[in-house]
Amino acid sequence: MTTAEVIACCRELAACSEEPGMTTRRFLSPPMRDVHARLTRLMETAGMKVQVDAAGNLRGLYPATNADAWRFIIGSHLDTVRDAGAFDGVLGVVLGVALVQRLAGRHLPLAIEVIGFSEEEGVRFGIPFIGSRALAGTLDPAVLEHRDDEGCSIREAIVAYGLDPATLNDAIMESRTGGYLEFHIEQGPTLDVMQLPLGVVSAIVGQSRFLVTFVGHANHAGTTPMKSRHDALAGAAEWIARVENEAKRIPELVATVGRVDVLPGAANVIPGECRATLDLRHPANSARKASARLLTDAAREIGIRRGLTVYVEPRLDQDAVRMDPFLRQRLERAVARCSYPVHVMTSGAGHDAMVLASEVSTAMLFLRTPRGISHHPDESVREEDVEAALRVGSALLDDLEQAAS
Ligand code: GLV
Ligand code: MN
Ligand code: MN
Hints:
By secondary structure, this protein is of the alpha/beta class. Helix content is 34%, strand content 22%. The longest helix has 22 residues, at 285-306. The chain is globular, with a radius of gyration of 22 Å.
């Protein structure tokens, strides 16, 4: 694939969507089948053996020259946020396929597995990293019972896709896996502002996610006096302002309430229930956890004061993660060998790499994101940066080949 073809492929996959006119592709949703079919064709043409594991991860294996060789994984995710761009996640998978294609049938003393993870964003079930957690062997079976808005559980979604949740353990990565590399757009403005094509990731910030539900009493909007109301949305609104203040107060903390569902949701009915998501991130785990405690306590305190019942459901508690120093060093060397400036940076976005890092040497390479726009249809990538990533990826594979010979 040329760099233009890599970009065109990402844009074509973006058309596989649950919603017309925008890109929305959640865990094992119908358009994921189309994405799997298209990528399978590309992977098979490049000489890979392809399967979908029980967590819905698409896995293409390019065998090594020898059966007992180590395996090296290149991957990212294939699910998207609602009304997404074309490159978040998908680009990392397509680049992996393109790198294998560029080997033109030459096999290495290490096997290469290209993986398109089924779920990273947490949109459908409020729980991110389902795919990579299955690979790392850290997917808590209790998670399978979580339900989406339509009442379908993760277990049922897996079965509906034609997969068998009883074989989830088979999705765990091969024991002779020596490394994981993820290409990803930066999703922020740093590289663009510095006019740099690439960034080598040193660490990924930690994340906490919660679902906070305020329950009051629905009642008539015209007849219920203000002093006798238990308005769930008004309580949630007070809390959301607290969330924003906390993030302004604590340096480097970012805090987002990205979704609010109000029931019954009518102009002339006092909101009886309000469900709000909370996403908290900070480079230091202790600071993130302290703010998580403070904000969940604040929700309860607001509830008591306003006569609301408050339920706090933790959905994610992911510590900050360092990338592997040795693989990172090799990646930096590859960047330098290809004559690009070596820029080392932390990631504020979450990635499958932060889940795999606990099990295998992990490194990430960021590509510049024009204007820092991501999680938005205007997300883009420059052709020359895609070429830079492919060159660096090939240089890293050369280096690993020499080390394995
Ligand atoms: C993934 O896109 C994230 O939420 O950081
Ligand atoms: Mn994303
Ligand atoms: Mn992503």
